[in-house]
Amino acid sequence: MSGVHVSTTINGDAVEFICNADEPLLDVLRNRLGMTGSKEGCGTGDCGACSVTVNGRLVCSCLVLGAEVQGAKVETIEGMAKGDKLHPLQKNFISHAALQCGICTPGFLIAAKVLLDKNPNPSEEEIRFGLAGNLCRCTGYDKIVRAVQATAKEMRGA
Amino acid sequence: MPLDTNFTNQKFKQVGTRPLRPDGVDKVTGRAKYGADYNAPGQLIALVLRSPHAHAKIKKIDTSKAEKLPGVKAIITSADLPDLTGGDRGMRDMLENCMARKKVLYDGHAVAAVAAIDQTTARKALKLIQVDYEILPHVTDVDEALKPSAPVIHNDIFTEGVEPKPTKPSNNNKRASFGHGDIAQGFKDADIIVEHTYKTEQTHQGYIEPHACVANVSPDGQGELWVCTQGHFVYRNQCAALLGMDISKLRVTASEIGGGFGGKTHIWAEPLALALSRKANRPVKLTMSREEVFRCSGPTSSTSIDMKIGAKRDGTITAAHGVLRYHGGAFPATWAEFGAMTAFACYDLKNVKSESIEVIVNRPKTAAYRAPSAPMAAFAVESAVDELAKKIGMDPVELRIKNAAKQGTQSSYGPVYGPIGIGATLEAAKNHPHMKAPLGKNQGRGMACGFWFNFGGQTCADLNVTPDGTVTLAVGTIDVGGSRASIGLMAAEELGIPYENVRVVVADTSSLGHNDMTDGSRGTFSTGLATIAAARNAIKVLCARAAKMWDIPEDAVIWEDGHAKPAGTNAGNFPPLSIKEIAAAAGNTGGPIAGHNELVADGAGVSFATHICDIEVDPETGRSTVKRYTVIQDAGKAIHPSYVEGQYQGGAAQGIGWALNEEYIYGKDGRLQNAGFLDYRIPVCSDLPFIDTMILEIPNPNHPYGVRGVGETSIVPPLAAIANAMSNAVGVRMTHIPMSPPRVLKAISNRKH
Amino acid sequence: MAEVHLWGALRPIVGGALSVSVEAKNIRELFKVLAEQYPAFEPHLQRGIAVSINGKIYRDTWDQALPPDAEIYLLPRIPGG
């Protein structure tokens, strides 16, 4: 099988890999690069558990081909904390009990970070629609929305 | 010494606070390992070939072409899984559900499985397997399956629980009934009677993580299984039995679990991965796709329920009668029986009868879903109670308060209640500001009650004091929603040490004795009991070691605030010894310090909830939105209130999805038409409001801290609460769940004509 | 002598009675006596029966004593989610 050679940047690091032409970015991350923080809940772009950013844009990595990220900048959950410092969203998800099983959490954090990067002062409705592409079955979203609200407030204050 | 489980009303220092969960950082950094996150060196990838037919005879399976495909290392069919179940029907059904034998019984039923060097090869191999089917007539509807004209799915099923025993097989495997009094007389005494048939459609637990495992079986008969499950000990026992392995030789490690809600209490594909690994002599990874999760794991039953309730004009219910039909999918089950047990449990009734009819249909084998069977029964009962209130002209909360069960009431399922919380949740609902808030145009308010049993079961805990005085605690129940935090809190409370000094881990099956699953709201209840007992056993050892260090008798030492102290001035005048000091000296006072416990945790308290819901309906489209939602539930004692609130909110959200949108849709061909999150739409963030919670604490007399289970009851009232709100909003009684826009629109247009 | 109440599914195996009187000191003995007297009881026991003694439900503690005059109900062993 002939593979596609891809050079890209993931969480600031230069990365090279070879993948099949039809291989989703999610499979590349999880199976070839050992980055299992992005989760597969559906494989069809419906659940958001595999959310990453490509050149700053929020995508479901199960719907992007590995071959498409040639030359791009990819950010995943593994790059969210800076050294031993958690991102305020990560801290607030823990302190607000915004996760139960935690399988959706990486996707929510990526989506919430994109939301706050674009809109530092979102309304509740903007948060709810900003996160509507991510499914959570444990929490009823209540504590997730509150964690994002608290983070937005904290980051505006900082 | 057995643990005294009587409630003691002690004052807590740590229980009831909200510390950070120990698995938090791993879960926000992507480091936590779930089912599909583990890989074994040299592993093969497994895929399963599944039936496209709802009901068919398997005439022949030809795997020869697939076997010749380079990269294919093993193929299995039912021939590789001989029946070792020795007449145990439940185990045989489990085996047959994992892999079809003579017939396929539902769309998605496994017929063969392949292990190959990669996914692409495995996928090609599946296409090369030829299965000759003889298609049989099928039935997927719970009412249709009971008709004399319906195809009989199993010719060895004769209805149990009726006399004389039927001579012909049918799709009704069992009937049962509960109740007391004389309902005929009760209905004669009634001034007003309401009667309806209610239907609920099949829903899925909808956990975000698909089933996944890595199996590794060696030719020497030893094996390992990494798997996402609600009960790794139970999976171990069942897989070993089906594969003819010694239980001790199969070591199961539970991954972090990405949701279960009952769906991961049952083995589905794990025996296939083990059998493939054994045949290939290589590790095998098997991950279900989302489509497979919907088609061939274990959703809940769809139901059809006849409900009749009569009352006096003053609101006293004189008689209640329900006939509940639930299906178990393609295998015999007793889901209707559990529905019948719970149906009227909220009320103090003189004359009550609930009858259950179990049904078999060509759908996947039904599994537990959070308070299994109770939400559908509550939908029928609470809808009828609401209608009764309307006909009498009484406030629905008042009518429920008037008839609510209390301490000393004979429950509809038999026993007399001890202290229970239904009355308290109703009073709280009555006085809640939500009840008095104004409603807007096209809005309606509804409320409903719910009941669930909760239970305990077999449990172990192993607590070790490390040389620096911090503590490790190995438990055997899976943490589905933060139980490591609540169990750590209980250990810290007992030992009198900081919560941060206790590390709780879920041990593998070789490290602890058997533990039942995390189900029945039992995780924090029963592992909590075992933990309290283990901590108290460790304290005894710690006191004995302090006694040695002081050279005084053991019974002259007491434990207080994490320190050993002389019991009184007679015992001697020694400064307290900390756990750290005693641990440091352990090597010379008798060796490692530990406390263990193995117990059967019976006596989990029954649990009640009342929910209030406001809904707004768009009369043009039938689309509805939940505007406000309040959950009031008795927790007994909330160990970690944040995660108790989380359970309340999560159950309510699942109930909202079930009530308004979620349903399995089968075509005339018996195939599932919406096996994906796009077409089986669970609530998203923008569908829901904040979900307000109110935790009541009516102590369970059978737990030292008063804990009742909290995980399940929250899904029981929503179907009815939302149906009542909807009925108030549109002015028509809604009797079919989900109340999806087309159904609501139809109800509105029928009302107009 | 304990009066043991039966749920609907068990009644046919004792000839339709709502309850039976059994001489037994604990749950284990109760099950043993019932299985001896009513052979059709065994499959129900295999599937799981819980015993409510004065309102407290026991699923596994077969050593639990049956006090005289206790209120005893046999119930299906419930599953959870």
Question: How would you sum up this structure, described in words?
Answer:
The complex is a heterotrimer of chains A (158), B (753) and C (81). Chain A has helices spanning 25-32, 88-95, 105-118, 124-130, 142-157, and strands at 4-10, 13-19, 51-54, 57-60, 73-75. Chain A is α+β, with helices and mostly antiparallel strands and 158 residues long. Chain A has a 5-stranded mixed β-sheet with strand order 2-1-5-3-4, sandwiched between helices. With 753 residues, chain B is α+β, with helices and mostly antiparallel strands. In chain B, 28% of the residues lie in helices and 24% in strands. A 7-stranded mixed β-sheet of chain B has the order 3-5-1-12-9-10-11, with helices on both faces. In chain B, strands 7-15-14-13-8-27 form a 6-stranded mixed β-sheet, with helices on both faces. A 4-stranded mixed β-sheet of chain B has the order 16-24-25-26, with helices on both faces. Chain C has a single domain (2-76), classed as Beta-grasp domain (Ubiquitin-like (UB roll), Roll), CATH 3.10.20. Chain C is of the alpha+beta class and 81 residues long. In chain C, strands 2-1-5-3-4 form a 5-stranded mixed β-sheet. In chain C, 41% of the residues are buried. At the A-B interface, helix 2, helix 3, helix 4 and helix 5 of A face helix 1 and helix 17 of B.
Shape category of chain B: globular
Q: Which stretches of chain A are poorly predicted, pLDDT < 50 over at least 5 residues?
A: none
Instruction: Please state the average pLDDT score of chain A.
Output: 97
Beginning-to-end CA distance, first to last residue of chain A:
52 Å
CATH level 1 name of the largest domain in chain B: Alpha Beta
Q: If classified by CATH, what would the architecture of the largest domain in chain B be?
A: 2-Layer Sandwich
Question: What is the structural class of chain B?
Answer: alpha+beta
Encode the helix/strand succession of chain A as letters: EEHEEEHHHH
Derived structural class of chain A: alpha+beta
Q: Let me know the largest β-sheet of chain B.
A: 7 strands, mixed
CATH classification, class level of the largest domain in chain A:
Alpha Beta
The CATH architecture assignment of the largest domain in chain A turns out to be Roll
How do the strands line up in the largest sheet of chain B? 3-5-1-12-9-10-11
CATH superfamily of the largest domain in chain A: Beta-grasp domain
Predict the CATH topology of the largest domain in chain A. Ubiquitin-like (UB roll)
Number of strands of chain B: 27
What is the overall number of helices of chain B?
19
